[in-house]
Model the fold of this input.
Amino acid sequence: MAYISVLIALVLPFSVFALDNGLALTPPMGWLSWERFTCNTDCKNDPANCISERLYKDMADRLVSDGYKDLGYEYINIDDCWMEKERDKDGKLIPDRERFPNGIKGLADYIHSKGLKLGIYQDIGSKTCAGFPGSYGHYDVDAASFAEWEVDMLKVDGCYADPKQMDDLYPVFSTAVNKTSRDILFSCEWPLYQHGAGIKPNYEQIAKYCNIWRNFDDVVDSWQSILGIVDYYSQYQDDFVAAAGPGHWNDPDMILAGNFGLSFDEAKAQFMLWSVLASPLLMSNDLRNIRKEFSDLLKNKEMIAVNQDPLGKMGKRIQKNGNIEVWTRPISPLNDSGKFSYAVVVLNRNQLGGPQTVSITLNSIGLDSTNCYSTYDVLNPSIKTKYCPQDTMKILVNPSSATMVIAKHYKN
Done:
């Protein structure tokens, strides 16, 4: 009972200004088409990989049959290029008739029959980033369409819109969506475009209208892209940590494990860091053709538990020594004194050489419990080691990789 009281106390400060639609109380998990399949509309020559009803049904099938759904991956998200180039005579959006022959409602019915949820894409401006009709001037109409189609998540981009107007535009669209009869998770790119225009985002306001929000550039399938996002998050981490919590999360973009640009070690590092950052876990890969080591990584229960921790405390970088960084996230359970357990990630940015042993004194990274900790590697959770705050923990980490250790309060 004491633990529940502490948990409520930790969550309440955020709920004062968060979007109150009851959604995304932990970071959303699922699959998103963009990074892997972009705007491929050539279904004649590439029917298995074009943006179409078939693609999203295939991925929904794999989420269920391969065990992702059972671990919390529940959203199948359409991105740009799903619609026709013009609205209908009533100003409504039209799904491409050839690529989505059963419409978005028909696809939603299929996704829901699998016990999953459907996400879709639009833009706050006059056009989407790929040049399809945007929602500017049609916010109420489009919100009604998405509700009618039984969409569960809406990603709203910011191309063809003035960043100076976004403090007005995003709230209008969010309000229109939340006035419908359907619960729709609202994902926005509001701070991304504002920061790019030299405007300081107001995260308190953003959290009032968005469940998740993109802060930085699109992730691309490369280690340098991952490191660029990590650097950006460490630069502004105090602002980001203050804004994150149940119902409202920073979104560093898609998970890339299983594609072409990241080695297994690099993919492991991204997944560990995104878990510590309390990021949405939205994979963008081809689940029909993914090597077992990558699918096992994406289904690692220990890392998913860190990401989905009910305290909703975003982690941050605690130490940096050359190319070695230490990131920590407070997690449950708390001890009788209200002290956190922790997830600790050691990132090795060195690209040359072999594995490196990193020595860490626990109290130097904020693990200041008066009690000791039971620690284990998330890839080998059965082997546990006792450490007290003054003890030095040695962590082995490969180059261009990361290692995650869980430290829970020790019980005799």
